[in-house]
Structures are given as structure tokens and as C-alpha cells.
Design goal:
The structure is a single chain. With 98 residues, this protein is mainly alpha-helical. 73% of the residues lie in helices and 0% in strands. It has helices at residues 2-6, 8-27, 47-64, 68-96.
Length: 98
Amino acid sequence: MFLQFGVPETREQSWDWLQENFDRFSGRMPGFLHPFIFQMLEPFCDSSSRDEVTAFGMTKVRQLGAGELEFRRAVESIQICTAQKAAHQDEFETLLAP
């Protein structure tokens, strides 16, 4: 799953799958790995995804009773990426302009 989240072309499908199958997915993992599920969400880089991840993730952190730190780090990573993208958008557009 980490690889699918890391590739933009498969990220949305992976996110949809994880939301639908989280309980089954996490249920097959040893408990000590549960917190690391949230690290898969770090590649998102927009505020809409951040909001979805936040709403979904907080519920699952409470359900699992684990992973709050990893979850908060994932949300922070999304926020940083979103801010960096916004700050450099003009530079990229200029660089890529014909």
C-alpha cells in the first residue's frame, strides 16, 4: 500500500480502498504496526485531501487506540507540502511555460 500511495496515478484509488477496508486491513496486522498505517497518507498534497485524511484518521486513531503521533505527523506533512506547493506555484508555472 505504501507504494500505491506514493504514486499520484494510484493514490486516489488507494485512498478509496483504504477507507472502505480499513478495519479488515488493520485487523490483519499485528497491533504494533497499526500506527504506521497513517504514514501511508503523507504523500497527499492538497487541503481537500488533508481535510478528508483528518476526519477519517482521527476516528481510526480513536478506534485503534494507537497511532496519534504518526497520524499528526502525516497531517503535518500534508500541510507542509500544500504550503510549499502554494508558495512555489508561480515559479513552477514560469519554469514550465513554453
